[in-house]
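One chain is below:
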Amino acid sequence: MTNLRFESFHPGLDPATTVMIDGHAPGFRMISHWPDNATPAALRHDLTTGSAFLYGEMSNSARRDLIGDFSVITNNHYDTDGVLSLFTMLRPAVAFRYKDLILRTARAGDFAVWGGSDALALELGIMSDLGPFLPFTTPPYDDERLGNLSALYVRTFDRLAALLEDPFALDGDSKQRFDLVQADIDRVEAGKGISLTQYPEDDLAVIESDRAITTFGLRLAAGNLFRILLVNPSERGNRYRFCFRGESWWDVVSVKPKPRVTLVGLAERLNQLEAAEQGTWWAAPPDWTVPELGFGDPVTFRHQAVRFDPQTTSDPPSSLHLDVVVEELRNALRNTKAYRPAAVSIPAT
């Protein structure tokens, strides 16, 4: 692993010398938890970072038997699990000193799973100050995007050892976000203004919260259930937002979320029942990392990735009672054909 170098992914890379670490690239060897990956069974893990640690624990001969020889590792996007998996491959001596923190941080980044204040702080540090490097997601494979992605990774690799040593060195927007999430976690753990109804047979958690909630708080409240209906009650009615957690998009091994389904039919059914004239029920495509269903202006909803909070505070209240929404949701989850995401379907954003 000592002679590896990182290069932003582009179609001109040679599959004979290159391995995709996180992400997905048809025709290339992969160490990844993305859908449709070609990761050898012995390296499979919920997180690509976990797979990188498994690789690092093997002998050179075992690595060769699994993956073969390569000198370039690549990625076509930037996120916390991508950063930490690449760093573990490139600088294993440093990574293994902080293995526990790194794995908890990667899980926080990809799944919004609460793993402690230090993991939250490190995740925010890795994802801070991205503005100067935009746009950086490929495709398209133009020089500007490839250069920005490369520069961003180089900058993060150079400062990651210091972040691991002191993950709490936060300021500005990162510190504000840290304080917001930490306060939300404290509230959820104390059970203040929040209630949970579980439907384990449907892998469904119905969470009623008297105020806005962060994605970390929402996932913590849901526990080991992977379909979540968030309800914000008000005097004029409930605001609703449903989502499939990201674990049902990635190729995970430690948990088995029930599959996601297409919710367009459910949105149409709820619109038939809805008495309110303002707003409408909408459903995001099931191939998004965290697809949602909600009530409001369909023009304003957008892809809510793992790291974004549910935007119920800007939604109008629905006229439908919670019991009606839960019944219709459970019927749709049980009777709609399962949808299996594919890596090639993720939008380039």
The chain has a mean pLDDT of 93. Residues 143-165 form the longest helix (23 residues). DSSP finds eleven helices and twelve strands in the chain. Residues 22 and 296 are 35 Å apart (CA to CA).
